[in-house]
Amino acid sequence: MEPFTADLLSIEDAQALLLRGISPLLSSHTLTINEALGWVTAEPIISPLNVPGFDNSAMDGYALRLTDIDAEHVLPIAGQAFAGKPYPAPLPAGQVIQIMTGAPIPEGCDAVIMQEHTQRTAQGIELTATVSAGQNIRRIGEDIQQGQVVFDAGVRLKVKDLPLLASLGINRVKVRRQLRVAIFSTGDELVSPGESLTTGQIYDTNRFSIALMLQRLNCKVIDLGIIPDNKTALSEAFHQADQQADLVISTGGVSVGAADYTRDVLVECGDITFWKLAMKPGKPFAFGRLSESLFCGLPGNPVSAVVTFCQLVYPMILRLQGITEKPFASYRAVLTNPIAKQPGRTEFQRGHFLFQDGELRVTAEAKQGSHMFSTFTHANCFICLPRESSSLAQGERVAIQPFPDFLEGA
Q: Which residues contact 209 (CB under 8 A, 6 or more apart)?
């Protein structure tokens, strides 16, 4: 490790400190399943019934009794069974029931042969394939059993989850309340998109990107706008945010510039820890507690702000929402191009991975500057390079984290 990075806090220690002592929000309320997309379950969801609710046919064919099968004889058709209109009696001895997919299995039947494996005659059907016990029968409770936990508490309900609840007849679910997050940017140089720039000004992308990510995480966003480099204005913004939010996120003003007043204001109104992190991008970062809320101060560079949000703030949000899943999946991939790196800081480079020729491959973006936000547009993962590692050659294996849904999804 380089001497000039020895005093920097590791990303692992920072992540642990952020989560220490943080508990999920306890408040909850009930929503219909039409409203519940993206919300987090507040209690386990229990199936009130079996799925399937009865033994039914997986094929269009003929329901039969195995002991009635005789290669020498045609089996007469006793009747028909349809989905929603079952055969009303037990299967007569020596006969079959013509049955459609999803129809209840008649009493006495122990297999279904698909119609393509039979030959129909005027007297009934002849079997052209062997039949085994239970063939083509969907058993009661085979998918979900009555009383089974379908979703634990702490699950964010996705599009793929809600139709399952509908199939169980569940129309209302208990969910945790939204996490309230106040956001603002600091800096006289910042201008909102749509306004005209003057000399020395830049557009505020950080507040916009953070708001989008928070919305995708189903947080209630309280946008306080751009706060000028003025201690009084900044103090008022923090007071307002603290009174309205569970979590306050600011961008910019956590470095050591002469006009960075964030440190001074926070010392006056909360218990704040400022860190210099051994990560790149995203070295300056602030965390602490205000009187009513938690606080995270992100760097002003656009890439640094998103990387620190993903690696540090996102796990905290999951903990507050009561979500138990890990923030990121991690995989090993083969580098298709060399990467330059100095030991001393954990790096999260942007890259693009794909599965090719039987293995996972990743290409690092050529431009990795913390001000170059276009690299996110072209990338789909973080290439995670350990603090002690140095430059890597093409063909070496690296750890990657596919971008989370709130970066990738529509």
A: 302, 305, 306, 373
